[in-house]
Design a protein that fits this description.
Helices cover 78% and strands 0% of the residues. The chain contains 8 helices and no strands. It is globular, with a radius of gyration of 17 Å.
């Protein structure tokens, strides 16, 4: 039993961890608008750090109180909405180049469709360790692009971070694809 006394089974929907994940999903569109309007700003980088940190918090809550299939689906979806939304806002603002962001978006959208497809058959596809590193590389890229001195005077740092995120995104996508190919039941249907 967890220290808070609350535990949830794998089929639970209304959990504190899922609530925090849903909050992250609801904040994503507002964040995109603010990024487009405001551009890089210290306060916005701070807000980004707090919002991105909720991913760690809901993960801790889920491990303590019981991971759920809905959480395994919603958490990566929230990450994608938040990161892709912020990156799209930064593309519109001229801080990031659309091509690498497009590569990241294609993989992320494809993975979401895959998770939804196999999820309808009751198969959960939790994030792998390297996928978490990929997400943090994407989060770091957005964070760096929101810090004014980096965005305005060290664009190369943001570009390098973005391309590292692209490489990790493509690599982890390939790992999922190869894993699914070795388990035909997960992709058949």
């Amino acid at each position: 039993m967890s220290s808070s006394g609350l535990t949830f089974g794998p089929t639970a929907l209304a959990t504190p961890a899922n609530g925090l994940t849903l909050l992250r999903m609801l904040v994503a569109p507002l964040l995109v608008v603010v990024i487009v309007i405001e551009g890089p700003a210290w306060w916005l980088a701070g807000v980004w750090a707090v919002i991105a940190g909720t991913d760690w918090m809901d993960g801790c809550m889920a491990r303590r109180q019981g991971a759920t299939r809905s959480g395994a689906f919603l958490d990566p979806l929230a990450d994608k909405l938040l990161v892709l939304g912020a990156m799209a806002g930064l593309v519109v603002d001229g801080e990031l180049w659309w091509l690498p962001v497009g590569v990241i978006a294609a993989r992320e959208v494809g993975m979401s469709f895959y998770r939804a497809r196999v999820g309808r058959r009751g198969i959960s596809v939790p994030a792998r360790r390297f996928a978490k590193a990929k997400t943090w590389a994407q989060v770091l890229t957005v964070g760096l692009a929101l810090i004014p001195p980096v965005a305005f005077h060290a664009e190369l740092v943001v570009d390098v971070a973005l391309w590292v995120a692209v490489a990790l995104t493509a690599w982890t996508g390939a790992l999922y694809w190869l894993g699914a190919r070795s388990k035909p039941s997960a992709i058949a249907g």
